[in-house]
UniProtKB/TrEMBL annotation:
Keyword Repeat: yes
Keywords for this protein: Leucine-rich repeat, Repeat, Secreted, Signal
GO cellular component, one term: extracellular region
Keyword Repeat listed: yes
Subcellular location: Secreted
Source taxonomy: Eukaryota, Viridiplantae, Streptophyta, Embryophyta, Tracheophyta
Transmembrane segments: none
Signal sequence residues: 1-29
Pfam families referenced in this protein's UniProt entry, alphabetically: LRR_1 (PF00560)
Name of the molecule in the record: Leucine-rich repeat-containing N-terminal plant-type domain-containing protein
Amino acid sequence: MIRTISSPTATASVFLAVLVFLTCLSSEAEPNLLNSSDLPLVPDLPLVPDLPLVPEILEFLDQRLAVIYPVIQAFKSIITLDPLGITKTWQGPDICNYQGFYCDSPPDNNSATTLASIDFNGFQLFAPTLEGFLDQLPDLALFHANSNNFGGMIPSSIAKLPYLYELDLSNNRFSGPFPSVLLGMPDLTFLDLRFNSFTGSVPPQIFAQNLDVLFLNNNDFDQRLPDDIGSNHVLYLTLANNKFTGPIPRSISRALSSLTEVLFLNNQFTGCIPYEIGLLNEAVVLDIGYNRLTGPLPASLACLDKAEQLNFAGNSLHGIVPEVICWLGIGKNLMNFSLSNNYFTNVGPWCRALIERGILDVRNNCIPNLPSQRPVSECAGFFSRSRFLCPRIWTYNYVPCSRPHPSSSDVPLIPGSAPTP
Ligand SMILES: *[C@@H]1O[C@H](CO)[C@@H](O)[C@H](O)[C@H]1NC(C)=O
Ligand SMILES: *[C@@H]1O[C@H](CO)[C@@H](O)[C@H](O)[C@H]1NC(C)=O
Ligand SMILES: *[C@@H]1O[C@H](CO)[C@@H](O)[C@H](O)[C@H]1NC(C)=O
């Protein structure tokens, strides 16, 4: 009967029927969906070469690749823009050589070959969702998709991917609240959500997770940081360019003690900088520029032995710049210390030495006899408006480590009775 049909549309529908039949047969008989040697041969089918639906006879390197082949092809079919022609390479059974796809043996079987990582960085692909793709790649360990145009929801079933530990969705079009599915992924160590449009608040549990890297900058998160942000071992945390508000919590030192980069710039943090900031002793970069912070600089910052860059520019900080902090640029590693656009009124000899060496930037403050300062009227206006009430003000002069004393340059400062911070 099949052989008597001749019109092209009828032929196409027969092919469709055969295709559906074959698919059902093979999936019932064998999990090996695309291993054609198990399929019954249908003899004498009319050949219609330009019909795209003809099932290809594909030989996969491994069963695990056969299983994800239709997943990849389905994703390819929803990609609406591919300016670099990446997906042209996504055809045939050799998935390990598709552009952006990388194979390896999975942790549960050394002799198997599977799709272990995806690197779509910079591919500029447009797709409305990753649902049905990212969550259907069971052996995936790394997914990097910086600078694409993926959107929609982050698929909730990615929590079931047992090996996924790096997820980079930066510079895409994700929006809505923080994807709570990520809270259920204790093995995630690298999470990069930068440059999207996430809003609302970041659940505090994420700070207590096992992450080494948490990049949240350039979104629209607008919340106070919880007073107790838990304790964790994050090495890189960027909150920059959001709308975080409220004070920097005192728990920061406990919570973020292994942090090497503290990037809080361009938010709306208010209040005084807590003494505890000086206990972040792994910090190499500490950037709290362009917030709404006020009060003095805590002298505890002088204990950041590893600090190379300190940025407090663009706040309403005032008072004397503690000399002992400037010593970091003389005896330690400090190379860039920016206090510009604040209301500081005094710097001592060590700080002046750093200004001369181009390390310390105090432009646009209120320091008499230095160039590029604010007009006197502006400074007077600020000081007449402001009330300087920092909590625990006695902690601001306390240096919780041994440092040379500014007035007797070789004698280390021996802290007296420690104030209880
Ligand atoms: C297909 O199945 C046959 C027999 O069932 C097997 O020998 C062959 O290795 C399979 N091919 C692939 C690619 O799995
Ligand atoms: C490991 O993978 C190989 C290749 O896919 C397969 O033949 C073998 O059965 C697998 N072993 C186990 C224990 O699953
Ligand atoms: C110092 O840091 C500030 C703020 O992060 C930056 O704008 C400036 O370019 C840096 N200066 C140098 C010399 O690296």
